[in-house]
């Protein structure tokens, strides 16, 4: 039975969507683990841990400054837009609930208009004051001379508002609560390497949700999904979301 047909039998009311770097690939944003990916030139330990930042803040700031600057050259693709449009349509029914959780630190879901959106790994467009913990909009590169607008006391006070390996992801209580109550969980464009995100499918499945993976290739946790659609997010996401767009 084709994917759309079996999904037509569902009438979801509480949907959680998880996205990873794959949904931004067609916008020109490098993924992490594909062959020309971001980690190709860097070891995680050297650019995406608190220890790396303490050891070589310039290298880490440079890694994120480059990626922040790239935001100006990329735009949401059809998958981002389809999710934002679907959310708006789906929430017209008052008892429906929709949460989009992204591992991505780019701002493409935000720019496509997604509203119920949580960045569990932080955002390139934000920085955080190491002294006060306050979060700031950050469009310019962070340099040792960058000053926060909260303390003004010295330099080297700003870090990227990014969750590094070994740090607690953001909004976890809200995410776990939504996973434990959802009836449909859709994972899009993630390799299933990184936890706790890669474990979300198990929580949703245990809660009785139908679980669907949309990815270019089977992820590390593919066997935990009821259904897998293999293909580019830009094509497959708009197609599958039409399944439940009755009007
Ligand atoms: C934490 C910010 C304590 C940085 C990132 C078990 C339980 C808990 C923790 C762990 C555990 N085991 C190991 C850990 C520790 C660690 C971890 O997971 N390590 C891995 C390497 C094994 N986890 C942590 O440290 C996390 N913190 O655990 O705190 C805790 C414990 C319990 C409960 C709560 C907290 C913090 C992890 C966050 C790290 N920060 N990002 C930055 O961006 O620079 S993670 C980083 O990887 C990115 O955010 C990225 O999104 C994420 C996952 O990668 P993907 O998005 O999946 O990208 P990837 O390239 O791998 O895959 C892309 C996929 O897309 C591919 O499959 C490809 O085929 C597909 N694709 C490509 N093109 C397309 C496509 N699909 C569709 N269409 C296309 N066109």
Strand content: 15-25%
Low-confidence stretches: none
Number of strands: 9
Order of helices and strands: HEHHHHHEHEEEEHEHEEH
Distance between the termini: 24 Å
**Gyration radius, to the nearest Å?**
19 Å
Mean pLDDT: 92
Spell out which ligands are present. ligand BV8
Number of helices: 10
Structural class comes to alpha/beta
Strand order of the largest sheet: 3-2-1-7-8-9
Largest beta sheet, briefly? 6 strands, parallel
Shape: globular
Kindly describe this structure.
With 247 residues, this protein is an alpha/beta fold. The protein is built from ten helices and nine strands. Strands 3-2-1-7-8-9 form a six-stranded parallel beta sheet, sandwiched between helices. Helix 8 packs parallel to helix 9 (200-206). The longest helix has 14 residues, at 57-70. Residues 20-22, 25-26, 31-34, 37, 48, 103-105, 121, 162-169, 172, 189-191, 193-196, 215-217, 219, 232-233 line the site of ligand BV8.
Task: Briefly characterize the structure.
With 247 residues, the protein is an alpha/beta fold. It has 10 helices and 9 strands.
Provide keyphrases for this structure.
247 residues, alpha/beta, 6-stranded parallel sheet, 3-stranded antiparallel sheet, 10 helices, binds ligand BV8
Give the helices and strands, then pairings.
Layout: H1 3-8, E1 14-19, H2 22-25, H3 44-47, H4 50-55, H5 57-70, H6 78-90, E2 97-102, H7 108-112, E3 117-119, E4 122-129, E5 135-137, E6 158-162, H8 172-181, E7 184-188, H9 200-206, E8 210-215, E9 227-230, H10 233-241
Parallel strand pairs: 1-2, 1-7, 2-3, 7-8, 8-9
Antiparallel strand pairs: 4-5, 4-6
Helix pairs in contact: 6-10, 8-9
Ligand BV8 binds next to helix 2.
């Amino acid at each position: 039975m084709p994917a759309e047909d079996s999904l037509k039998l569902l009438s979801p009311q509480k949907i959680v969507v998880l996205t990873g770097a794959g949904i931004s690939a067609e916008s020109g944003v490098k993924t992490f683990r594909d062959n020309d990916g971001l980690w190709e030139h860097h070891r995680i330990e050297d650019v995406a841990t608190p220890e790396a930042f303490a050891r070589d803040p310039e290298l880490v700031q440079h890694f994120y400054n480059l990626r922040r600057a790239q935001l100006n050259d990329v735009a949401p693709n059809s998958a981002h837009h389809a999710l934002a449009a679907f959310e708006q349509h789906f929430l017209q029914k008052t008892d429906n609930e929709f949460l989009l959780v992204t591992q991505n630190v780019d701002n493409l879901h935000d720019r496509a208009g997604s509203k119920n959106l949580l960045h569990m790994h932080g955002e390139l467009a934000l920085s955080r004051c190491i002294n006060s913990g306050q979060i700031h909009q950050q469009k310019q590169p962070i340099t040792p001379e960058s000053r926060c607008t909260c303390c003004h006391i010295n330099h080297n006070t700003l870090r990227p508002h990014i969750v590094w390996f070994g740090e607690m992801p953001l909004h976890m209580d809200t995410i776990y609560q939504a996973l434990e109550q959802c009836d449909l969980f859709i994972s899009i464009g993630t390799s299933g390497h990184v936890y706790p995100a890669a474990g979300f499918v198990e929580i949703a499945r245990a809660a009785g949700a139908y679980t669907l993976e949309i990815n270019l290739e089977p992820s590390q946790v593919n066997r935990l999904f009821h259904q897998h659609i293999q293909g580019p997010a830009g094509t497959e996401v708009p197609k599958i979301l039409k399944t439940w767009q009755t009007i």
